[in-house]
Structures are given as structure tokens and as C-alpha cells.
Amino acid sequence: MLSQIQRFGGAMFTPVLLFPFAGIVVGLAILLQNPMFVGESLTDPNSLFAQIVHIIEEGGWTVFRNMPLIFAVGLPIGLAKQAQGRACLAVMVSFLTWNYFINAMGMTWGSYFGVDFTQDAVAGSGLTMMAGIKTLDTSIIGAIIISGIVTALHNRLFDKKLPVFLGIFQGTSYVVIIAFLVMIPCAWLTLLGWPKVQMGIESLQAFLRSAGALGVWVYTFLERILIPTGLHHFIYGPFIFGPAAVEGGIQMYWAQHLQEFSLSAEPLKSLFPEGGFALHGNSKIFGAVGISLAMYFTAAPENRVKVAGLLIPATLTAMLVGITEPLEFTFLFISPLLFAVHAVLAASMSTVMYLFGVVGNMGGGLIDQVLPQNWIPMFSNHADMMLTQIAIGLCFTLLYFVVFRTLILQFNMCTPGREDAEVKLYSKAEYKASRGQTTAAEPKKSWIRLPVSCKPWAGSAISPALTIARRVYVLHCMTCHKRWMTKSLKSWERTASSVVAMPFR
């Protein structure tokens, strides 16, 4: 069950990859329309420069204005077991059909459902326009649910054999036909239940506003600590792309009001307090540096050049584009304690920044979000906030370094380059393999080989246990009739004096 949830959460990440570039385009376009940066003449609506920038900006809004459709079509790429392209087609048709059903039922029986479909689809109405269809504003939540239902139908029915005379309806057509029928009750249930969900979302938004710094800490902590499970997508998704904090999601709301915020002299926290729920990217920028420095200075002197060669690219990747997997899964692989401490420090950093008035859309790295969507457009009127953010971030960089260095030395952890530890970083796949979470595509047995010299019990009375462990291992191999028994035994003979090897299924 957990693996299925992880797969679903991972599939959600496919559409998310489209947002960094779109955000950069919109952010730079809005910056080029600011007279404080380019002058009054270039921002004149009649100038060719302003017209070209406006055209480019409109293209950048494509992803933001069609988020539900993009999430609906993008999920089957990761969820469909076969023919992913056909699954995307079936989902798109079914998603539009579902919205047409909602529109028709709402226009016909709107009074029964308590929804006024005669009003314009504006903010606060509960309605929206989706591909020219006036429908309920279910944001990405409705899109994800419908996409999941249709993808499940695709996985179950795509290969179903029909009688010869119905062969034309086999495959994708059959999936769409069944989905068409399923969308009728789905639309009915949506109209019946979603208005109540909208009231619940409004209550949640009010609670989060009142929770303040505590809400920011809990949100950021959960977003970090759940990364190994893949469930963190369900934490940040409703906030960044859904209506959990603000209507339309923080990503879209921030982009829509970027020019307004950049021209205002009021504190950003008073203009957009919900921006505290998008500060989790600061741990990728400032925390990554402290973690890498701790690993570097705890490595053996003769290995530091090799360690630097690994850590510098990984740190730059985390800082610039917000991809932290090489770093995070390395110390998660070695010690979950370090990862838990990382989650606490990341949450504390976001909370302290929020208390000092730092808000924005900073869930990514420097290139994709922080610079084009925050620092550059906001510099003219909010430079003091940025300096505060940098100062707090550097303090936490130092705190990360001190805490990680202390823990690594205190518990003698085998981070890259320490004593006999291998100089390498670990991936998510290697971490899952070590935890026995191998997939069908990865049936091989994974081995974690930890040098005895890096263990707290090195040189103690535990050494004779190697002999006992070897004998138990022999019996295990003979019982299971493993073909690799001889090779494994030789490996034990050769390394028993210096290596503790444990097989993980």
C-alpha cells in the first residue's frame, strides 16, 4: 500500500517540473515591465519592447492558467502500467467530459446543489473556467482524483478483448466509453460534496493564518521529514499548487501579484502572510552548504580532495535548482538521525525567517525561483527583507555545520571520506534498496558494507560474533539453495576481519 502511495506521489512530480521555467519567464517578463528597472519609455504600452514582453509573458502563463488540466494529463505518465500516451489521451477526454457534466448539471439543477452557475467565474465564486467550460473550481484536487480513476480504468481495461464485431472499440476507445459512464456519477458527487469541501478549505486557510509561525514550522518539518517515503508531495502540493493556503495555490497567486508586490512599499508579510508556507527552499540554499562543509571537514585529510569533488557539484545543484537528493539521501543512508536533525533545522530556519518578516515563493533553488521570482523583482522596495533572509540563512549555515560536524564525530558516522568509508554519494534507489524496498525491476540483493573501523564497537568483544554469523549465514544459504553461495562465502572469508556485511532483502 505504501509503495502505491509513493508511486502516486512521485507521479505528481511530473507536472511540477514544468513550473520552474514558466515561473522564470513570468518573473523576468514582469521585471521588464517595471519602470524602476527599464525606464518609463520602455514600459510604455505603445512601445514595441513592452508589446513583445507582454506577448512573452502571456506564453509564460500557460502552465499556471491550466494547472488542473496539466496535472490530470501528467499523472498517467507515472501511473499507467502501459501505453502511457494513450492513457494521457483517455484522461484528457474524460477530464473534459467530467467538467462538461458538472456544467450541464449545475446549469440545470444548480438550486438543488446550492450552486449558482449564472454568476461569473471570478475569485470567491467557487467557479472557474476550464478549457472554456464554466465548472466548479476543484483546483488540482479534482484533476488528480479524476486522473487517478481514469488511469485505473486504463490499467484494467486497456488489454480487454472484445468480440470481433466490437473490435473498433477496443483499447483506448473502450477505456473512454467506460470512463464516460463513470464521469456521470463523479460529476453528480462533485456537485453534491465539493461546495462543502470549499467551506472546509476556507476554514483551513483561516486556521493556517491564525497558526502563524507554528503552522510554518509544522508544514516545513513534514515537507522535509517525509521525503524518504515520497509522501512529501502530499504536503507541499495542496499549498503550492492547491487551495490549502490561498485560492489557486501559492505558486499562481504569487505570480499573479508579483508586480503589485514589487511596487508596494508595505512589508511583504502584511501583503502576503501565506508566503510563509513557501520558504522550505531556504534549506536547499543555506542548509546544503553547512551540510557539505561538515562532511568535508570530517573527512580524512587525504580524502578531502575527492570529497570536495563530490560535494561541490551536489551543493551547487541543491542551491541553484533545488535538487537535494544526492546530499540528503547520503546522510539518510548513513544515519536517519542526521536526516531528522536536518528536518528540524530546516523547519526552524523557515520559522525564524517568517518571524522576521520573510515571505515569498521560495520552494526551489536560486535559479528557478528565488532570483527571478523573489530577489530580483523585489529588490527595489524590499531589499531589507532580502538582507534579513540572507543573514538568517548564513547563521543557519553555521548552525548546520556545527551540529552535523558534532554528530558525525560524536557518533563516528561513516560519511564520505571518513577513515575507510567509500568516497561516494548515495541515491534514493540505493537508500530504498538498503531498506528492503526494491521494486520488481530491481530484484537483486543489496549489500551494505560498513568498515569496522567506523563502528563504535570496533576492536571490542563483538569480533568473535563474525564466526557465528558466518555459520548462520552458511545454513541460510544451504537452505535457500542460493547459486551465489560459494561467491558470498569467499567474500566472507576474505573480508571478515575488516568488514561487517549484512544482506538486506
Automatic annotation (TrEMBL):
Keyword Isomerase: no
Compartments, record wording: Cell membrane
Protein name: PTS system protein maltose-specific EIICB component
Enzyme category, top tier: transferase
Topology of this chain in the membrane: Multi-pass membrane protein
Matches recorded under InterPro entries: PTS_EIIC, PTS_EIIC_1, PTS_Glucose_EIICBA, PTS_IIBC_a_glc, PTS_maltose/Glc_sub_IIC
Segments traversing the membrane: 12-32, 87-109, 129-153, 206-222, 234-255, 275-298, 305-323, 329-347, 354-371, 386-408
This protein's record includes keyword Cell membrane: yes
